[in-house]
């Protein structure tokens, strides 16, 4: 029987920030599609490992300070040597710092750009170099945002970083597609996660957000995870450089 084009059976996928929220949802979806997950995070991945095991999958837990790109670069190289070949990389780890632009500290700006954008480039570079050397087809999925298209409010650094992720996705897709490395991004809408906790805790802001979403609900991590599986699988083999909104219809409103 021919394997489904949406299956990840026999494939290994690295997911950064897999300990909570969207990253956890992606890790679980990959496991449910038959893939083996290598989760990289600064915090323990105990809960994710339990969810993946319950789904009949396997999670390799890797504790790493992803904010230090020198450490992250070296750790990824070690993982590729130890677990290779690795089919996919999902660059999900990220942070958000909220402040009026006139009060946004340079320290917060640097922290956000370091983790949300520089890390994405560094890990993608290491991953792609290894795949090219092995002449191995591979997939990279970056997590962009609605703020890859919009400016948002009180999130100048975050918006800049996610615009950067969109541009980086397209730039490296152009270079690496000839090597059978497909690079795409998902732009999540308003999803239940740590990054949206402050918004969900503000009754007025939460109501205003829900009023604009045609689907009438906040997204779930699984909504993003299922699209990530598609972009990691053979079903998306002719997609490269795409930024895919998963937003309940927000951008179309």
SS strand fraction: 15-25%
The biggest beta sheet is recorded as: 7 strands, parallel
**Helical fraction:** 40-55%
Distance between the termini: 43 Å
Overall strand count: 7
- Structural class determined from secondary elements: alpha/beta
Question: What's the CATH C level?
Answer: Alpha Beta
**Poorly predicted ranges:** none
Radius of gyration: 17 Å
Topology:
Blueprint: E1 12-16, H1 21-32, E2 36-41, H2 46-54, E3 59-63, H3 69-83, E4 88-91, H4 106-134, E5 138-143, H5 156-176, E6 181-188, H6 197-200, H7 203-212, H8 221-232, E7 243-246
Parallel strand pairs: 1-2, 1-4, 2-3, 4-5, 5-6, 6-7
Plain-language structure description:
- The structure is a single chain.
- The protein is an alpha/beta fold and 253 residues long.
- The chain is 44% helix and 15% strand.
- The chain has 8 helices and 7 strands; from the N terminus they run E-H-E-H-E-H-E-H-E-H-E-H-H-H-E.
- It has a 7-stranded parallel beta sheet with strand order 3-2-1-4-5-6-7, sandwiched between helices.
- Helix 2 links the parallel strand 2 and strand 3.
- Helix 1 crosses helix 8, helix 3 runs parallel beside helix 4 and helix 4 runs parallel beside helix 5.
- The mean pLDDT is 96.
Keywords:
alpha/beta, 253 residues, 8 helices, Rossmann fold
Can you describe this structure in just a few lines?
The protein is an alpha/beta fold and 253 residues long. 44% of the residues lie in helices and 15% in strands.
